């Protein structure tokens, strides 16, 4: 059919719903995106230089509620040299800078940027090491060590923890209270619990991938009851309502 984009790798063919895309053959060359008459294809993400990112950020500076930018990902600190140069350049323009990180990086990566960032959203997926390994594939020792280190530095830290019943949380009441007490004991003033949701299931299908995590989302009201019951006075612990994006 003439409406099917001509792929140089023969990764697109008729069949399926309504086209079949062979993800193993696709090399993200972008030809299909450029020639598709219905604009049904797009490449999300592109390579950018430091100057290109700064230019893009400053274009909307006047509209920022708090005058800032958040470096997110993936894991932004897995590109430490780029991030180090970027935050220095952004700070030259007086911007508030936040970084979202899983914390599984060398401490020197944090030391290189701490003077230039104002806020860290820090993922702490599980306190139990064995469960963390089973859940993520890596130990949480480095992550907890870095969190303890950041708690003693002059930077605002917000800990974020996904709540995935049966995976990183089994006994919700006991383990959430333990988490709240741990974060409060570090002197960190904010903890956000992120209830598991399945909003990404459709996106997996669009990428030709199987969605395997068949977990029932936790009741938000019940999570809030737990937090209210075990929350120490020196911490703001809250359950975030999932937002469909």
Structural summary, described in words:
There is one protein chain. With 245 residues, the protein is of the alpha/beta class. The chain has two domains: 46 residues, Alpha-Beta Plaits; 190 residues, TIM Barrel (Alpha-Beta Barrel), CATH 3.20.20.70. The chain has nine helices and eight strands. It has a six-stranded parallel beta sheet. A two-stranded antiparallel ribbon has the order 1-2. Strand 3, helix 3 and strand 4 form a beta-alpha-beta unit. Helix 7 crosses helix 9. The longest helix is centred in the C-terminal third of the chain and has 14 residues. The mean pLDDT is 88.
Can you summarize this structure?
This protein has 245 residues and is an alpha/beta fold. Helices cover 34% and strands 16% of the residues.
Descriptive key words:
alpha/beta, Alpha-Beta Plaits, TIM Barrel, two-stranded antiparallel sheet, 34% helix, 16% strand
């Amino acid at each position: 059919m003439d409406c099917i984009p001509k792929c140089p790798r023969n990764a697109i063919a008729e069949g399926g719903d309504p086209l079949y895309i062979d993800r193993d053959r696709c090399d993200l060359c972008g030809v299909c995106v450029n020639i598709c008459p219905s604009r049904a294809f797009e490449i999300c993400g592109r390579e950018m230089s430091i100057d290109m990112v700064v230019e893009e950020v400053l274009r909307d500076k006047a509209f920022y509620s708090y005058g800032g930018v958040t470096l997110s990902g993936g894991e932004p600190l897995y590109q430490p040299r780029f991030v180090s140069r970027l935050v220095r350049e952004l700070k030259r323009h007086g911007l508030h800078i936040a970084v979202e990180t899983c914390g599984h990086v060398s401490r020197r990566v944090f030391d290189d940027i701490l003077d230039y960032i104002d806020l860290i959203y820090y993922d702490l997926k599980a306190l139990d090491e064995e469960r963390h390994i089973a859940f993520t594939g890596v130990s949480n020792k480095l992550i907890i060590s870095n969190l303890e280190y950041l708690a003693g530095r002059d930077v605002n830290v917000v800990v974020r923890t996904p709540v995935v019943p049966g995976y990183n949380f089994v006994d919700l009441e006991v383990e959430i209270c333990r988490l709240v007490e741990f974060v409060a004991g570090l002197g960190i003033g904010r903890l956000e619990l992120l209830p598991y949701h399945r909003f990404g299931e459709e996106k997996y299908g669009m990428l030709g991938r199987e969605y395997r995590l068949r977990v029932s989302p936790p009741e938000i009201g019940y999570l809030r009851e737990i937090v209210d019951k075990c929350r120490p006075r020196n911490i703001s612990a809250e359950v975030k309502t999932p937002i469909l994006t």
